[in-house]
Amino acid sequence: MRVPKSYIRDTKDWEEIQYRASHALQSAELNEQQKMAADALKGIGDSILSDGNRVAGADINVNKDTGYTTLTAGKIYIRGRVREVGAASFTIPVVGTVMVGVFLRERLETELQNPALRDPAPDTRNYGEPGAARLLAHLEWGFGGGDGFYGVYTVVDGVVRDNRPAPEFDGIYEVVARYDRESNGSYVVYGLALTYLGEESVLIDSVPVLHQVFSLAAGKAHVNGYEVELPYALRLKYPLNRDLQLVESEPSLFTPAANGQMRINTHQAPLVRVVDLEITEEKTVSLTHGAYSGVRDPLPDTAVLEIRSVKQGATTYQAGIDYTLTGALVDWTLSGAEPAPGSTYTVTYRHQRKVQPSGVDTTGFSVAGAVPGTLVLVDYEWALPRIDILTLDKHGLVRKLNGIPHAYRAPVPTPPTIQIKLATIYQNWMAGPTVKNDSVQVVAMDDLRNMREWIYDLYDLVAIERLKTDAIAKEPTSKRGIFVDPFLDDDLRDQGLEQTAAVINGELQLAIDVDVFDLTGTPKLLDYTLDAVLEQLAQTGMMLVNPYQAFEPIPAEVTLIPPVDFWTEEASNWTSPETVTISSGTGGNSATLTDTRTEITRVQTLEAQTLRVREVEIRISGFAPGERLTETRFDNIPVEVVSL
């Protein structure tokens, strides 16, 4: 944007402008010198920061239910300069991906808009004369994009996905990211486990659309060398976009039950919609013979398969001799007998008829009215199985990549190299999808050390088993019908029966059951009275800091007690390990038993299928006198609370 008569030439490859004596100064040279300085500064700035990077402040808060967005004042790097932006608030869509950023607004200002731009120096020949124009630029918060828009935040379904601190040295970060990427690849540090919550109807353009709802736990990952952290769990909603396949004319032999209906389970499931259902129905109707002999009498149905009988009173006419079926007509052109013209006779015939199924579910439907032993033909649509994956990119954006549907062997999609796979979603559409959290997890040094020790122990166990096998081969446990157990361990016990005894130190003893009590709650104290140790009773005066009470209400503080629930579930196949832990010795009063045992067990971490049920205390503070609590929500789900 340039004002008329403001000249400037291409300054590419210009190092400096050298002014010469006795040569006039050009206005273009001043403009070019200004541009060269700005380009040099922009080159340095772009090597450290990128357009849209936050330098200070500029925080965001989005209400994921209403879309109301609040942004604070701050500084943002745009086009070679750190520019200030004021606070703002607006409402954004809560469905889909929305870019929230700033618009760079520019305008020219001359002495016509601002008289103060005239020469302010008195006693000069140029006093009050117009001079150079000014190019003004400022930032405004906005969303969506357009001319002069620079994205700062990415908001997906009302949740901010890119909320990292402002970068300071992108060049250094790139070096570290390249080293991490080439040595370790992408991996999850902790968390980021996916859980399926259920289905939910979402209004899109005033039309309800069924969505699958997932919960992605908070966590941290290194994606393509860049650290991405989700400080809180995300509630993800994806449309239930099933891939349908049409099956035509699937046959079933009609065998009715006592109520006259037959349950038909389709070959492919889940069944989404029955398109067409045809049965063979037998019907008896009365027809009036035509006005002359040899006429063809039409039947009331078109898809006629065969005529079972034709009767008039006690007379039964023979097919192929007296009449024949031509299309949907009773043809009397044969030379045999026929009813008198204008008389009435009855015809029993079978025809194809389209009917509506009943009791439709995901596996099949029920049908009635067909002739036993005849075919039932059905056209239906079913949902093809599919395998989807959930990925995360370096900007914190979570994507669900749909796989290729297949009836029997659906392939697992491969994530792009710049994204990390968090979980695999197996869509069979019969019930909720099966979620497998199979992301690449970081392995701690302690785990590597334990794995090395386990490998050494494995070699020892293999050697011991070889010795045991050799000993058993030479000296079997059962000799001459007598079973011998030295009670060294539980190897010779029947694992198919419940074991109520324990083997300890070569002896068979009664087992000891262990009950673990979770001692929680606040500490119990004796009654006490507070004594003042130090008091300040003197005062000099007071003044109102904010006499007009001009401030926003302080939001209430809500605290969960406990904020995190930890519990341990133990499973033991034998009672011996628990009993040997409790037992301290046997025998006389002077007997002493010291036993040191190191056991390496298999450690496995699994996602809990369900959380245990427990009471949670909600402590709320900061309410004004008389203020009422109208609703309580946990994970955006209404819950009932009981006051203590």
Question: What topology emerges from the helices and strands here?
Answer:
Layout: H1 27-48, E1 53-57, E2 60-62, E3 68-71, E4 74-78, E5 81-85, E6 88-91, E7 97-109, E8 134-143, E9 149-156, E10 159-160, H2 170-184, E11 187-191, E12 194-204, E13 207-216, E14 219-223, E15 226-230, E16 234-239, E17 244-253, E18 261-265, E19 271-288, E20 296-298, E21 304-312, E22 315-317, E23 324-326, E24 329-331, E25 344-354, E26 364-368, E27 375-383, E28 386-393, E29 398-401, E30 419-427, E31 434-436, H3 445-474, E32 478-479, E33 482-483, E34 501-504, E35 507-510, E36 557-561, H4 576-582, E37 617-621, E38 633-634, E39 637-638
Which tags fit this structure?
DUF4815, transmembrane, 39 strands, DUF4815 domain-containing protein, four-stranded antiparallel sheet, transmembrane helix, about 650 residues, 4 helices, membrane, extended, mainly beta
Explain how this protein is built.
Keywords: Membrane, Transmembrane, Transmembrane helix. It holds the Pfam family DUF4815. This is DUF4815 domain-containing protein. This protein is mostly beta strands and 644 residues long. Among the domains are: 49-168, no CATH class; 245-383, no CATH class; 443-484. It has four helices and 39 strands. The strands form 13 sheets. It has a six-stranded antiparallel β-sheet with strand order 17-27-19-25-21-22, with no helix packed on it. A four-stranded antiparallel β-sheet has the order 8-7-9-10, with no helix packed on it. It has a four-stranded antiparallel β-sheet with strand order 29-28-30-31, with no helix packed on it. The longest helix has 30 residues, at 445-474. The two termini are 67 Å apart.
